[in-house]
Amino acid sequence: MAKTFTQEFVKGLWEEIPPFRLVLGLCPVLGVTTTMENGIGMGLATTFVLLCSNILVASLRNIIPPKVRIACFIIIIATFGIVVELLMQAYTYPLFLKLGVFIPLIVVNCIVLGRAEAFAYKNGILPSIADGLGIGIGFTLSLAALGGLREIIGPGTFYGASVFGPSFEPFTFMVQAPGAFVGLGLMLCIMNLAGSK
Amino acid sequence: MNELVKMVVVLTVLSAFSGGLLAGLKNGTAAQIENQQLKFVKGPAIKSILEGASNDPIVDRFKVTDGDVERSFFVGKFDGKAKTLAFEGFGKGYGGEVGLMVGVNIETDEIIGVSVTTHSETPGLGAQAKDKPDFVSQFKGFSIMDPVSVTTDGGKVNAMSGATITSRAVCVAATQAGEAYEKLKPQLAEKLKAFNE
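Above: the input entities. Below: the structure tokens describing the complete assembly.
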């Protein structure tokens, strides 16, 4: 309990940044990072679910019986997952169309369940908010970075604007799933190199 | 025994609360979601096809049952006469169903324009069917009664480079729309009379 709010928040940004350090929740990481906009949208949706589920799990942690805790977590996470899906359909429909099936899949994102089990169930509300926000924003930044990389090399645009001009031939490989693996691997490699010094 | 009761109670209360919240939210957002779908998916497609119509095709719509599916038809008035209809057909693409809004002149059975509505094709490749007008503009002037196919399959449509499957899907969607139109034409003509009075 020695860690402060800021420390819990900051750890999600580098020390435990989800897709790279924890290597969790790879399904949306590989699936939706075709553009930077999609990456940010998916990251924010996940952050919302993570934050809400962390708060609720932390505040109910003395009521939830240990034997059925996973079932309770799943109910809480699924509820917020559907809340996000409905709200996105109602207010940001174009983004919902692009992210499609990955929004309901937030429910089975290991990061969300992982944080509920490993952190929120053992800590108070305030640290859980910090943890949820930190991990969520770290996840958003990772998705945005990977999405940006793939968008620039793939269709040759950056946040929708053309980078290389009309003569650029789209690099199909980066748009598709294998490109996501290679991009993720390279970024992980760079982060490990930077961290090993 | 005490623990068993607690588990059951906690899970029941949590599920009931979650169900209630989601049901309320779904009811609350239903109208907004339908508006968004009309505005972002079908609206722009219909407007681009029925450009210059003197009425609002989104308001002047009717439904006809075709087998077990209900199809929406959007009416466009030109020169004071309701003689054009826009409706949707679907074809299987690279990443799922591709929806195509087809505008037809009911007097000549000629396609006056098509536009892609829903799709999950690869960004930068198949997705260009929606983003770039060059491909879909080829459909203009075809008879809706004839099947449409790409040149490699012996048809008249030039496929988009790198996106043959999507190109085929759009052709299938147009053909499917044509089949429905052919079958429903007597009913459609009847319905259109109401808009001419």
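Note for the figure: The radius of gyration of chain B is 22 Å.
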